[in-house]
Amino acid sequence: MVTIEKMDFSYPKKPTICRGLNLFLEQGKIIGLLGLNGAGKSTLMRLMAGLLKPKAGAVKFDNHATFEREVAFLNQMVFIPEKVSVPEFLKVKDYVIVYKDFYEGFDIGRLEELLVQFKITGNQRISNLSFGQQKKLQIAIGLSSGAKLLLFDEPTNGLDIPSKSTFRKVLSGSLQEDQTMVISTHQVKDIENLVDQVIVLDEGMIKLHADLAELENEFVFSQAAKAPEGAIYVESHLLGAHYIIGQSESVGDSGGSPDLELLFNAVIEGKISGEFLTNQKLVKP
Description:
The chain is an alpha/beta fold. It folds into 2 domains: 202 residues, Rossmann fold, CATH 3.40.50; 64 residues, no CATH class. 26% of the residues lie in helices and 29% in strands. The protein has 8 helices and 14 strands. The strands form 3 sheets. Strands 6-7-8-3-9-10-14 form a 7-stranded mixed sheet, with helices on both faces. A 4-stranded antiparallel sheet has the order 2-1-4-5, covered by helices on one side. Helix 4 packs antiparallel against helix 5. The C terminus is likely disordered.
């Protein structure tokens, strides 16, 4: 699907953002790309979309170099940036007619369902839509495109609380086996219980690439009045502590599903690092 090999990237007159980056993204996965502001998330998304050219190495989609922007690649890729730009003089239905011709697998029925859920009508003029509504329109088109690679950069920015809930609802279970979705965000809670894998990017480096099912097998994510001895990472709060502990160190605590915010903070603090895919083991520094 997406393969990044020994990739370097930097902007002119700025420090190198990525050096020697390696990454492989599987089909049928929703992947959360997490990082602090300025960590390089949007840059990595644009490299995968073919909008930026690596200084060295390769970024490929099904053996197509993304920066070459071949039709075979563009027909199978949707990129929704954080700041959307749409032709405001068009009505929604006219914009859809133009857009759907780019994708041979476009599902107009699916789009109509999503527009209803997002409370957008075809006769609305795009200039009359709020920023959040324009974002929802782009999301609906992306999810209806039939593209195999879906790249959503900060998709929940600009969405109100009900719209975020609808976004999670429409994404849940919507991915086909031959599709890959990457969701870049620093709002970790917005994608919790949605993603299959998580990538933590920090200072242009991948600090963690993990399958959540494997993380759940390896660690306990829990809370108590006091964190147990041997906890890998602890965050104190008014009622006690949230903590991560290895399954082998845990006694009588099954915990719950991985807490992405707790995991993210642990990785940024250097308490957890490594890769946990293809039989590689997660390691503590």
